[in-house]
Amino acid sequence: MPAEYAFNWAAVGIAAIFGFGGVASFFVISWILAPRRATSLTGIAYECGILPTGEGNTRYNVRYYLFALFFLIFAVETVFLFPWAFVFLDLPAAAFYSMVIFLVVLFFGLVYAWRKGVLSWR
Amino acid sequence: MSLLDLITIAIIVFVLFNGILTAVLGVIWAERKALARLQQRVGPSRTGPSGILQTAADAIKLMLKEDVRPGSVNVVIFYLAPLLIFTPIFMLWMVLPFGPDWVLSDLGIGLFYIVAILGLSVVGHVLAGWASNNKYALLGSARNAAQLISYELPLVFAVLAVGLLAQTATDRPFSLAGIVEAQGSVPYLVIMPLGFILFLVGALAETARIPFDIPHAEEEIVGGAFVEYSGIRWGVFFLTEYAGLATMAFLATILFLGGWTGPFSDQVPILQPFYLLVKMAAIILIVFWIRAPLPRLRIDQLMAFAWKLAIPASLVNLLVVATIVWVQHQNGWELWVTSVTISVVSIVLAVATGIFIQRRREQRLRQFRQRWAQ
User: Fold this and answer.
1) What is the ipTM of this complex?
2) Per the confidence metrics, is the pTM higher than 0.95?
């Protein structure tokens, strides 16, 4: 089993290296082959042909932040759910019921946020 | 773990990398051709037979294009972002099984690995938008982040329900090969149709396909996070999008369509990858078909659909499957009893959800008409 374990995760690591290296090699090939004729206007940010005004990194809607917070809650929930789902048939009944209660509590949290109007985009 | 092992892995990974590149060229050609047919056009027809070399020609053209980089970008992150977007999608392919023996790394926690790695690609999109120092790119990346994280939840819950269901029939419920073996001759599409629909919706949103392509929205923010990317770096964004589509179709095949099983697949092992690719192609064609008639959703409709419908529905689906599997385990039911129970409950839930959507739609329409009649 340990040999197989090392093999499996080595494959994942080598895939990460190949993914990075492969795409980087495209950039290198393109850098070698492509022409470069920069003019004074080449370096301007693209805004449909109109000269850009103000900063590039502008302010945007705070709604995105609220949804990110919500996602965080549910992402933590999935982190708890996966190990539980792996073993719950071998555990005593309390493990099953406590996870169901946890899910139901989170579900009511979602309903509460819904009633408060957090989920509607205004 | 010897040097020979490492070399073997490297060769297989290299073959997979090139296989994915070729597959993406084929998928893009197929999309242009299928979409053209659906819109009563001919599509690419000049380069090679039926224009099959058109995307290859496009890729070479992108390679040779001048590499324009605006002066205001954050250079390191700007160059790093395409790499960070593509690498997670490629890493997913290591655990995908083409057949019972045709898998490079059969992780025991394959499902968890997929969910974890899938979440990484959002980092690349956000970095690309931020480093571009451009308003359109920033808006696009914010939308992309919001969409990816919102639709990740129904996707993950649907995948988790498959893992729970597989526990009834195999002792390796979280390995992808184990899930295919657990399905046997009855695919989980039949047992859990609600889960399949939720998975498909989540997959469409994760790959930003058309009903959910507000992050790209060519008509308003001209492409979103990759406005400032040109040449081959722009190509890498599209490569990733189509590689992601192929990955999602592969996952749907493994999790819901019974993977490599089909008529005579046990007697003739060479048929197994063939069946798998045929099922995958069918799912990809369905995605193209969805693209043709549907308009783009607004961002508020998009978020409302994720948080008010897809996430509650997937939570209910998960709870129902967990409860039935638990009760079956406690009472020692036969396997088919569990399957039939879950199937009936899932179909009832899916139909109820459909009726709910329809009623809500009619209600909205009435309100709208009343307001405009006054």
Assistant:
1) 0.84
2) no
